[in-house]
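Justification of computing resources. Each target in the renewal requires a structure prediction run like the one illustrated here; the chain below, 276 residues long, is used simply to show the kind of job we budget for.
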Amino acid sequence: MTRLSRIALALAIAVAALPAAATDLKVMSFNVRTMAAQDGPNGWDKRRDLFADTIRQLHPDVIGTQELIKQQGDDTVERLPEYTWFGRDRFGGHNDEHMGIFYRKDRLKLVESGDFWLSDTPDKVASITWGNIFPRMVNWALFEHLPNHKRFYLLDTHFPYRDQDEDARTRGAREIAAWIAKLPPDVPVIITGDFNTEPSSEAHTVLTATLKDAWNTAPKREGPAKTFHDFTGKATVQIDWILYRGVKANAMRTITTSKDGRYPSDHFPVQADFTL
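Resulting structure tokens:
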């Protein structure tokens, strides 16, 4: 770790340790990198402590994850007992990848939760259409912010990754936009996700017709725009977004924490600081 990296890490820890204001809400999106992959020196057993440490440094109130295997979720809350997590995997059980949502039990109350699939039959568990090769889904929650009892919706998703899946990503964006349109207009909505496409895409255009992109609108921005780096630390595409309506974005950051040349994931997590 370089001297500048150590200084940046110290500052992040100091900021995270400050008491949160009653209306502050910290939201993180974090693609975990599934432990099912054969990653050798970047396997989960070699980065799970760093993964938890990265969250501890920023201390977000809620985290939308992608590619999460149940053991990874359980390992994380074992190290961070102030958090809990929930969500079914993309096949409707707990043996595959989850869009797991973590939240701080002292800051948020889970009022309601559910899921739907990005397909022609969204209520059918594990349904696949639009040329997808795996089920794609949204995990969602209605939270109550305990300091001020304000409520907000959090949606978490993971779009398909292949170049030929651009139409499926656009269709998924339209389905999410239609689902959000049915929510009470006075309740804030935040989306976290690995969208596997950049902000120039039709999917981003569809979603930002009614939502804002925190990276584009927050007055304070830190770190690189691009987020996927394949464990190299050199990101190539901006595919991890936080979108919102009904809250004020104060800051947005891309977190590039590493230790001894190892990263907590092959994606940089992103975090937005909001005022409810």
